[in-house]
Amino acid sequence: MLKVNKIDVYYGDMQALREVSIEVQAGEIVSVIGSNGAGKSTLLKTISGILRPRRGSISMGGRDITRAASWRIVELGISHVPEGRQIFPSMTVLENLEMGAQFQRPRKMAPQTLEQVFSYFPRLKERLHQKAGTLSGGEQQMLAMGRGLMSLPELMMLDEPSLGLAPLLVSTIFEIIEKINAQGTSILLIEQNVFHSLKISDRGYVLENGRIALSGTGADLLENPHIRKTYLGL
Predict the structure, then answer these.
(1) Mind listing the pLDDT tens digit for each residue in 44-96?
(2) pLDDT value of position 103
(3) Cβ pair 68, 49 in contact under 8 A
(4) Which pLDDT tens digit goes with each residue over 119-133?
(5) Chain segment 167-222, per-residue pLDDT in tens
(6) CB 191 within 8 Å of CB 160
(7) Range(s) of the chain covered by CATH 3.40.50.300
(8) Pairwise CA distance, residues 3 & 23, whole Å
(9) Do the bridges between strand 155-159 and strand 186-190 make them parallel or antiparallel, or are there none, so unpaired?
């Protein structure tokens, strides 16, 4: 489905990613883990067209999207739920969700998709006409994910969905990610909670200093001595 092939990404003269290659197959949950500053968010921003690789290529379903506009990448089936939620605080919950359905097919399917979103996040239905900026942190994360789902993505990229949430809500968010995946949406996940993310992942990559240092199944990475010592404190 998604293939990132040896991309180099820079911020000015500073290189953030070096020959990074990853793949996400249809139906998979794939995690990218690493310390702060390793380049994880940069990777997602490059896939979604916010940043451009200086070298390398990115394809979705066999179609080259390396230089595609961000709106075109969304239209082709990739949604990006960024770190920090990035909702529109002065707009209502419903208006935020509607922003995710701007293209022809998602717009036609919006009523059905809304009901699907409410099945994952019933609290959003209760807050439908409330200003998004007045929601709790957990509710705002639900809204950001719901907005991402409104574009009917084949691949959903989630950047730190559990950041700043209470432990009980963290478990809920991971359960919902699994439900979304079970309904046919592939997931590319960046998450500080390494144990939870690898536990639900088919495969994972370890990004260190802008390079892929390790890769394997989620289960294998959880048992890897380097992962256990560096990221799990075991």
Answers:
(1) 999 999 999 999 999 999 999 999 999 999 999 999 999 888 899 999 999 99
(2) 87
(3) yes
(4) 999 999 999 999 999
(5) 888 888 999 999 999 999 999 999 989 999 999 999 999 999 999 999 999 999 99
(6) yes
(7) 1-77+154-234
(8) 5
(9) parallel
- Tell me, rounded to whole angstroms, the distance of Cα 69 from its chain centroid: 18
Each residue of 100-159: pLDDT tens digit? 998 888 999 999 999 999 999 999 999 999 999 999 988 999 999 999 999 999 999 999
Q: At 166, which amino acid appears? A: A
Phi, psi of 61 (to 5 degrees): 60, 35
* Token reading at 149: 């789902």
SS (H, E, C) the chain: CEEEEEEEEEECCEEEEEEEEEEECCCCEEEEECCCCCCHHHHHHHHCCCCCCCEEEEEECCEECCCCCHHHHHHCCEEEECCCCCCCCCCEHHHHHHHCCCCHHHHHCHHHHHHHHHHHCHHHHHCCCCEHHHCCHHHHHHHHHHHHHCCCCCEEEEECCCCCCCHHHHHHHHHHHHHHHHCCCEEEEECCCHHHHHHHCCEEEEEECCEEEEEEEHHHHHHCHHHHHHCCCC
Tokens of 125: 């239905």
pTM for the model = 0.93
β partners of residue 93: none
Fold of 1-77+154-234: Rossmann fold (3.40.50)
Angle between helices 110-120 and 137-149 (to 10 degrees): 140
How far lies 182's CA from each of 26, 110, 176, in Å? Answer: 11, 20, 10
